[in-house]
Design brief:
CATH class of chain B: Mainly Beta
Distance between the termini of chain A: 41 Å
Strand content of chain A: over 45%
Structural class of chain B: mainly beta
Shape of chain A: globular
Helix content of chain A: under 10%
Number of strands of chain A: 12
Radius of gyration of chain A: 14 Å
Largest interface: A-B, 18 and 21 residues
Strand content of chain B: over 45%
CATH class of chain A: Mainly Beta
Number of strands of chain B: 11
Shape of chain B: globular
Oligomer: heterodimer
Largest sheet of chain A: 6 strands, mixed
CATH topology of chain A: Immunoglobulin-like
Largest sheet of chain B: 7 strands, mixed
């Protein structure tokens, strides 16, 4: 079955600290993976995507993610968070064999401590 | 700056009234999604169009919801009659089939009282 799991509903980090948000997927083929961010009252904005090639993907706003096939993971990282990074983060998988539908994780809410 | 445009941004209506939400996808995009987002259910796919044809609307309550694309520049989501449980933020997103990151609109916040 195709699925995306974000194990952490909330994560709290201090401003300036490093961040890692977890995403695990279940998919029978090579996945196309995305991370989106949703700020309060806003739509979802694409941070980065992985289709193929280099497994370390750079995105906007200083974020990066690493695709690890052996662990079925696509974790999002940032070396030093800023208060403006407080938002909800969604991992998604493109199911190319199911009409290209997006399979979404439940989201992780990032809280930044001053 | 190409973007998905949704109108209205906010809508408050009384139970039983018809609600129509509109979406203008990014020019040239051939895939359109309608999502509903609530605290309890998160993001739910309601309908999915490719080249204006509905591919999947299994997530949509058929008795009261309908989604259409009268042309390539307009997608609509209609609720008739609306109920308080329909209160949510409704997002439209568009994308290209081959490079299928989805671009989201700002959403329509619907409140049914």
């Amino acid at each position: 079955a195709q699925s995306v799991t974000q194990p952490d509903i909330h994560i709290t980090v201090s401003e300036g600290a490093s961040l890692e948000l977890r995403c695990n997927y279940s998919y029978g083929a090579t996945p196309y993976l995305f991370w989106y961010v949703q700020s309060p009252g806003q739509g979802l904005q694409l941070l980065l995507k992985y289709f193929s090639g280099d497994t370390l993907v750079q995105g906007i706003k200083g974020f990066e993610a690493e695709f690890k096939r052996s662990q079925s993971s696509f974790n999002l990282r940032k070396p030093s968070v800023h208060w403006s990074d407080a938002a909800e983060y969604f991992c998604a998988l493109l199911a190319r064999d199911s009409n290209y539908q997006l399979i979404w994780g439940a989201g992780t809410k990032l809280i930044i401590k001053p | 700056d190409a973007r998905v445009t949704q109108t209205p941004r906010h809508k408050v209506t009384e139970m039983g009234q018809e609600v129509t939400m509109r979406c203008q996808p990014i020019l040239g995009h051939n895939t359109v999604f309608w999502y509903r987002q609530t605290m309890m259910q998160g993001l739910e796919l309601l309908a999915y169009f490719r080249n204006r044809a509905p591919l999947d609307d299994s997530g949509m309550p058929k008795d009261r919801f309908s989604a259409e694309m009268p042309d390539a520049t307009l997608a609509t989501l209609k609720i008739q009659p609306s109920e308080p449980r329909d209160s949510a933020v409704y997002f439209c997103a568009s994308g290209l089939e081959a490079n299928t990151e989805a671009f989201f609109g700002q959403g329509t916040r619907l409140t049914v009282v």
